Amino acid sequence: MSRTKKNISVSSKLFELLMKKKKENNFRSVDEYVEHILFQVLQPSGSEEIDPEEEKAIKERLEKLGYL
């Protein structure tokens, strides 16, 4: 996944909800949480490949949650 970033805008109400949900789901930032959500929604079906950086982040989250 490319590390180049672009900006998008969302309503204040949606941003507040994203802030709440990112905390509940242990993401470091709203950007990281939104990127995760969009990747899940937009990933072509049948595509099982995970970016090595994303795999590392997933493993770190699972370790923090006590699953690994």
Describe the structure.
With 68 residues, this protein is mainly alpha-helical. The protein has one domain (12-64). It is built from 3 helices and no strands. The protein has helices spanning 12-24, 30-42, 52-64. Helix 1 (12-24) crosses helix 2 (30-42). The longest helix has 13 residues, at 12-24. It is globular, with a radius of gyration of 13 Å. The two termini are 25 Å apart. The model has no long low-confidence stretch (mean pLDDT 84).
Summarize the structure.
The chain contains three helices and no strands. It is mainly α. Helix 1 packs across helix 2.
Question: Compute the gyration radius: what is it?
Answer: 13 Å
Low-confidence stretches: none
Largest sheet: none
> What series of H and E elements makes up the topology?
HHH
Question: What is the overall shape?
Answer: globular
CA distance, first residue to last residue: 25 Å
- Tally of DSSP helical segments: 3
